[in-house]
């Protein structure tokens, strides 16, 4: 299949690589030094988002944030100017669910198909083609995108109509962020009370407090190994998406807001590029520990 | 073994029943109508906590809160007046870790042994002898208590010295409470954004957001089945233990405090006797939903 691919960062590069390896013809926009290998592997360079979309059956975006997606879709020489009727836009970026619904309506309004398909699993998931992918869009869009998504991911769920993939991703990041903070509060309390946090964590594994976060991030907190993983700086962006969605929907999410603030503090303290489990450092520092 | 047992509530009754069935001689204090069957099964009545402790190798407490434990231990005709040297006090109540350390010092000061051994697993865990038990005390106290604890529970961990069992229990309740709130925020956001919360939950299972709470309590939230389970009223007591411990230790636990407040609101709204997963109702009501 001829595919336009825009967004060749840490995540996008291995994802595009898997598609090329699977035999697809990729038109790559914004090829830089780090993504040169994709051209050598068979990809072609497109001088604009519009050029990447022209003649493509699908255009895949993997961009940092909402304004980037809006610019690439609807800016000068954007995807919307190049995409043909019946072609498919798959936005795999993690961006605003509210903005996504508006983007989908505009793309569908000109006769193309839309799927929002944000991922979780990070750089390792992208490299190993093991991403979890949460999809929002029509049945038709999902069915058409699925074979491409299966080249990049493992757990692929069609959540609902356009925007629901981004909603699920934001919900995922809210739960992950708040559970990390919960484990950090508990282990900080354990240490302050004079108990061994490692023994407390062991006592809790297997009970109602058990979670992937207690297993994985709890261990990082105790060992104080904070190499990312997933950077606090990036998780902070996702918490901001939750807080902005809550404002747009007139919804109070008190602990999502509190965790966003702690992440602001973590970045201020110079921990923005540590793994999100390092939030325990900010929590401890709050009480001078 | 001759055992004094004080606290024959919903949890204490089946726990005492397992000990009698295992062949122990139980001296029961405060036998009421609901616990009459324990006397018929072979237990004897003790007219005071002191009388239950006299001649006993171990005294087990399963009481509602810190002041109850203090009164039964050190009040008029209390356990401290009856317990012999070398005998063991096992406090299986969920109470203050800070107060527990003081109680342990007083009991050990008169030549007896101390173990705090709070449980999780609720009424079902007590009935099925499947409680998780978190222990604080000396190696000697833990070794002596272990055969008794194995009659009542399955996962039994010696966390550390006296008080550490209660600290682990409070940490457990902090993580459980905050994770329930996290899942409630995510599912409320999903619904408000127009997505199907059940589909969002399915998309998240198996990823980093996965937890026993997302599986069990997330399902209750979606089905709106809030029969306890574990009552918000009781979990609120445990959150208060966390907040009080944080104050005693000069430690800021922002989200534990926020969840305690939401539980105050839940009780105020008449939801105190619903399962703690019903916290999602309070969160939704906060935004008039």
From TrEMBL, chains A, B:
Family annotation (Pfam families): NAD_binding_11, NAD_binding_2
The keyword Cytoplasm appears for this protein: no
GO biological process, one term: organic acid catabolic process
Sequence ranges assigned to domain 3-hydroxyisobutyrate dehydrogenase-like NAD-binding in this UniProt record: 163-282
Enzyme Commission code(s) on record: 1.1.1.60
Keyword terms: NAD, Oxidoreductase
Active site, per annotation: 169
Domain 6-phosphogluconate dehydrogenase NADP-binding as annotated: residue spans: 2-160
InterPro entries: 3-OH-isobutyrate_DH-rel_CS, 6-PGluconate_DH-like_C_sf, 6PGD_dom2, 6PGDH_NADP-bd, HIBADH-like_NADP-bd, HIBADH-related, NAD(P)-bd_dom_sf, Tartro_sem_red
GO MF: 2-hydroxy-3-oxopropionate reductase activity; NAD binding; NADP binding
Family of this protein: Belongs to the HIBADH-related family.
PANTHER family hit by this protein: 3-HYDROXYISOBUTYRATE DEHYDROGENASE-LIKE 1, MITOCHONDRIAL-RELATED (PTHR43060:SF15)
Protein name: 2-hydroxy-3-oxopropionate reductase
Species this chain originates from: uncultured Rubellimicrobium sp
